[in-house]
Amino acid sequence: MLTLTQRQPPNPDVAVTFTLALTAEERTRSRHRFETEDGKIVFLRLPRGTLLRDGDILQDQTNSSLIRITAKPETVLTVFAQTPLLLMRAAYHLGNRHVPVEITSNYLRLLPDSVLRTMLEQLGLEITEEILPFQPELGAYGHHHPH
User: Fold this and answer.
1) Which of 24, 47, 51, 54 is the S-S candidate for 134 at Cβ 3.0 to 4.6 Å?
2) Which residues lie below 8 Å from residue 109, measured CB to CB, with a gap of 6+?
3) What is residue 111's three-state secondary structure?
4) Where is average pLDDT lowest: 30-39, 47-56, 114-123, 133-142?
């Protein structure tokens, strides 16, 4: 059993004991029990409100192990638009619904939701279902609320 209590910023040069792949929702948990693919039990005991990002390094309470967090691929909807204005309009409507969204200049990405998919299609957007790491915006106050 390993209890992870400290977060460090991403550092690709750090040698880690192992990597822990977590979904976007799992990366919002500061207290949780995970089991790795090879059966290791890992407890997160981070300060409340800690949000993990792809590449973050976690240290155990004895300072003997370093674990790298990676964004686990999960089913997502990737939204494309013919114009930047249409993509901004989609971001506006998704923001009004307070759903976690990954925002880039070329696409938006969100977790699958049939109602939101229909709304976006009615706005004239192209939607592709994919399995990719999902890295939503943290929000203006550094957090988002999973629904």
Assistant:
1) 24
2) 76, 77, 78, 79, 101, 102, 132, 134, 136
3) coil
4) 133-142
